[in-house]
Amino acid sequence: MRVNSIQFAVTLSELTEALNAGNSDLSQLYSDTLRRIDSQQGSRAKIGRQVLDWLSVTKRPLTIGELCHAIGLQNCGRECSPTQIPSADTILGSCYGLVTQDRQSGQVRLLHYTLLEFLEKQSTFSANDLTVLECCLKCLSSSELSQLTFQSAPSLSFFAAVHMRVLRRLPLVLYAAEHWIDHLSGD
Length: 187
Known about the structure:
The chain is mainly alpha-helical. The protein has one domain (2-185). It has helices at 2-7, 12-20, 26-38, 44-57, 64-75, 88-93, 113-121, 129-140, 143-146, 156-169, 173-185; strands spanning 62-63, 99-101, 107-110. Strand 2 and strand 3 form a beta hairpin. Helix 8 packs across helix 11 (173-185). 31% of the residues are buried. The model has no long low-confidence stretch (mean pLDDT 81).
């Protein structure tokens, strides 16, 4: 019965209430949803799993732009062109409702803390600090960053312009700079 209340919840408050009512049917619901994710066509299944992996090991919530860039980096070489980065709709749609985006902050999170607990118990779950570390290092070693040179003492407005340009091209760069070491140590 509770699975039905979760499946038919139409508002976030209804869904939260149904999830908080107990864990009796949650494992089955999560298992069924993961099977649906895995049965998607093309690369959507892989992207869905990668999104869940990322959101369960990151050290802070990621914005949708950071998450799209992270998945793009994970699936391509060191340099990732904009055409290799999945869209926000693809990221969110490939997870069949197991992730949610806060429209104001743009942050993406797992639907509920019980999902993280469920994923941590799964033998097929591949969340891995090493994968996140590799993507952080790819981002930080990007040619976009290595091409930044300064002939003289730049002005504050110059730094602001460079900062915005880099963030547009490399949305994951701030997360990577702040947290790569955390993923190295596995903390």
